Amino acid sequence: MIEFEQTFHNFLMRHQEKYNRTYHFLILMDAIVTAAKRIELYYRTGALKGNLGVAGSINVHGEDVMTMDDIAHEIVAHYLDQTQRVIQVVSEESEGIIDMNKEGGRYFVYFDPLDGSSNVAHGLPVGFMFGIAKRILEGSIRGPEDFHLRSGHEYIAAGMFVIPTGTFTLALHEAGCWRFHADETATYVKPVRMTLPEEPRKWELSFNAGNISAFSNKVQKWINANTDKYKFRYIGALAGDFHRLLSDGGLFMYPAIVNHPDPKENRPQGKLRLLYEANVVSFMCKEAGGDAIDETGTPILDIKPTKHHQRTTLYVGSKPIIEDLSKALKG
Ligand code: AHM
Ligand code: MG
Description:
Layout: H1 8-18, H2 24-49, H3 68-83, E1 86-91, E2 98-99, E3 107-115, E4 126-134, E5 155-163, E6 167-172, E7 177-182, E8 188-193, E9 204-206, H4 217-226, E10 231-232, H5 238-248, E11 250-254, E12 272-273, H6 274-287, E13 291-293, E14 311-312, E15 314-317, H7 319-330
Parallel strand pairs: 1-3, 9-10, 9-11
Antiparallel strand pairs: 1-2, 3-4, 4-5, 5-6, 6-7, 7-8, 11-15, 12-14, 13-15
The chain binds 2,5-anhydro-1,6-di-O-phosphono-D-mannitol and magnesium ion.
Magnesium ion (MG) binds at residues 92, 112, 115, 277.
């Protein structure tokens, strides 16, 4: 007998039916998966075709190089627009908010089409990360759609592809965090529910250790008191680092840079972007039983964005570590 794995598409269809929802979300997710596969294809052959260079350089065919970031952005924006289900998107690679179907669309999509840019030149893991929020539908107590930027707790789903590994993880509002793998036909299959392990044996710490002396004194103190307890891992691409964390537990952080020897290099708001980086992993982490805060101890998902490319500090991972850090940061 042939053994069939459940496909992502079937998983999602059953999810929508179980919760009495429409198929519009299936159409949206189909576009996102199609875009991810196409980005993966470009990424795998990028070094050969000269697509992993910097903008302004010339590839092996003597053509101007479009950076992988631009290619990835164009792919995602194309497939999302085609669905006619998307109201607006915010992409890390576009300065402005991009309007799509403002009248008839149902979803807002916030995405970073190729996160982890320092890995690109090496062909090492990068991420395509996205968060999805929904239109205020007619009859809602909140009244008509006001196109405000959603906080993370208003997302209905968030996910990431770790490229080029063929893994896809999606969290659905109050319905868990699920991982899929691409099979031989490039179909995402075999849903596995991801729950952060309670047992601290495998917990890992993940942050750019080269920045330690530039962190605040409170953060440095916490690090000094805690690093010996855990293993340390850092891929340098949030999707890759967070992918490990979902299986092994622990903490990923990108603290504020406040003590840099060159004050111009300080980043008191942190480096990562709220809408399509921090919110995405924080939403997924919550669905996997974890938590996320910023450096003031505010839950990441509660932050009300005021700018679409807003940055935030980020501490995301196993609940006991986040609780401990929260005390240390507020103390
Ligand atoms: P990017 O959007 O320019 O790629 O920056 C985001 C990335 C994250 O994926 C990663 O966690 C972090 O920046 C790494 O930064 P650093 O090189 O400072 O450690
Ligand atoms: Mg990014």
